[in-house]
Design a protein that fits this description.
Blueprint lengths: L1 H10 L5 E4 L6 E4 L8 E4 L20 E7 L4 E7 L6 H18 L33 H20 L10 E2 L5 E2 L23 E4 L2 H11 L6 H20 L7 E8 L14 E8 L7 H18 L1 H13 L4 H7 L7 E8 L14 E2 L2 E2 L15 E8 L2 E8 L6 H21 L2
Parallel strand pairs: 3-4, 9-11, 11-14
Antiparallel strand pairs: 1-2, 4-5, 6-7, 8-15, 9-10, 12-13, 14-15
């Protein structure tokens, strides 16, 4: 494992790099061999870090790895800094790690072939519109400016509803926290030594996962549209129970892959934009009405390429000193929650014709789960990942406001909504 880990790091420069701020413009530099440690122990040792979840890229590389072993199983936890790679790139890294493991284990003729990577492509990861579009006309340039302004005005000035904290409402409508949640904020403070990166997950069966595909197609929807709809319904129900009201504008931050076809050889990097699915109070709680609202939003995202306008506005704002820090420093929420669907995790291409799960000798990859990062006032992040024919729904909540039982309760509400979709068939 350790040899395969080193092999994989050598293929992905950003994951093992540091940020140097000694120059006028910050730049990436090599992190060095001493940054490649894996925290390896038996299952009795808590997964923790002296700095908590926070990674300072000036002093630490953007990947931490913990391995915890037991008699019959091993759990590996990877924390990636989002500036180094997005969720798809993290899965790319993990797939190559498993491939390198099989090569190191002496797979012989069955050893996977690693694709060639071109680190030079990383120099262009900040370019989102290819040269094939040519120089825009004055009219199209003005239209781009107008759409970018509209996208960012909605983000900055149309405040979404905040997800209510966990706990129960008392007779006065005040949230009461359980005693077990009295110290839940320790996991994210710098200097914390408590367990970090807690999240919950639930795996749908092969039959349930296949049924969702069959339901989506006749509706003119994708599986992701159904997951978005049911997450909206779960969040509305949660706020109704814990804030006394299901009203307000729910906004989901939806990561969108902006990779181009000619970037297949790019090492791990962040190549996503953000788009936002908004469901107003008038969309009600009826599943059909909420799905219609979601479909309207996701079609706009695809047809108008709104994620690129998000990135364009972000790029422009970085050129004006103080704008980014002002936007991020305001006590405003950009989204109620994050909803990401990273699709199929396939450790080897082509996959084994006889095995659904990745294996190497007696080692079998049973499951994989993941969660996106969350920022201030965006208190929940959900992710769906498919592996071995099963879809796993994962949820992470801000531990300053949610204990483990609270996160599990919200995930249960989400799973319940998805299974109601399966029961209705629509």
């Amino acid at each position: 494992f350790l040899a395969a880990f080193t092999d994989t790091l050598d293929r992905h420069p950003l994951v093992s790099a540091l940020v140097d701020e000694s120059t006028r413009v910050p730049q990436w530099i090599a992190g060095g061999v001493n940054q490649r440690a894996v925290d390896w122990a038996d299952e009795s040792v808590t997964i923790a870090h002296p700095a908590g979840e926070y990674i300072d890229l000036r002093t630490s590389t953007g990947l931490r790895v913990w391995v915890r072993t037991a008699a019959g199983s091993t759990r590996a936890l990877f924390e990636f800094h989002h500036a180094c790679c997005d969720g798809l790139a993290a899965l790319q890294f993990l797939a190559e790690l498993l491939a390198c493991y099989k090569i190191r284990a002496g797979g012989g003729a069955t050893s996977p072939q690693l694709r060639d990577l071109d680190a030079e492509q990383l120099r262009h990861r900040g370019v989102y519109v290819g040269p094939e579009r040519g120089k825009p006309s004055l009219g199209s340039a003005l239209q781009d400016i107008w759409v970018t302004a509209c996208v960012w005005s909605h983000i900055l000035f149309r405040t979404p509803a905040i997800l209510a904290a966990g706990g129960q409402l008392d007779d006065r409508g005040t949230t009461q926290r359980s005693k077990s949640d009295s110290a839940i904020d320790t996991s994210i403070r710098p200097g914390s030594v408590g367990p970090i990166l807690p999240f919950e997950s639930e795996t749908l069966s092969v039959e349930e996962s296949a049924a969702l595909r069959r339901i989506a197609a006749p509706l003119g929807a994708t599986i992701n549209d159904l997951f978005l709809r049911d997450f909206v319904l779960a969040l509305r129900e949660w706020n109704k129970k814990h804030a006394g009201s299901a009203g307000g504008r729910l906004r989901l931050n939806v990561p969108v892959n902006v990779r181009q076809r000619d970037e297949l050889r790019m090492p791990a990097a962040n190549r996503i934009g953000f788009a936002f699915v908004t469901c107003n109070e008038g969309d009600c709680d009826d599943p059909r009405q909420v799905l219609a609202a979601v479909l309207k939003e996701t079609r706009r995202i695809k047809e108008q390429q709104l994620a690129l306008y998000f990135l364009g506005g972000l790029d422009f704002s970085t050129r004006i000193p103080g704008v980014v820090s002002w936007a991020l420093g305001r006590n405003r929420s950009f989204a109620t929650a994050v909803m990401s669907n990273v699709g199929l995790f396939r450790p080897e291409t082509p996959p084994s014709p006889t095995e659904d799960r990745w294996s190497c000798g007696e080692l079998v990859l049973e499951s994989i789960a993941a969660v996106p990062p969350i920022r201030k006032l965006t208190r929940a992040a959900a992710l769906v990942i498919e592996y071995a024919g099963k879809m796993t729904m994962c949820l992470r909540c801000d531990p300053r406001f949610f204990g483990r039982e609270d996160t599990r309760a919200l995930l249960n509400e989400y799973v319940k909504r998805v299974r109601q979709t399966l029961e209705r068939g629509t």
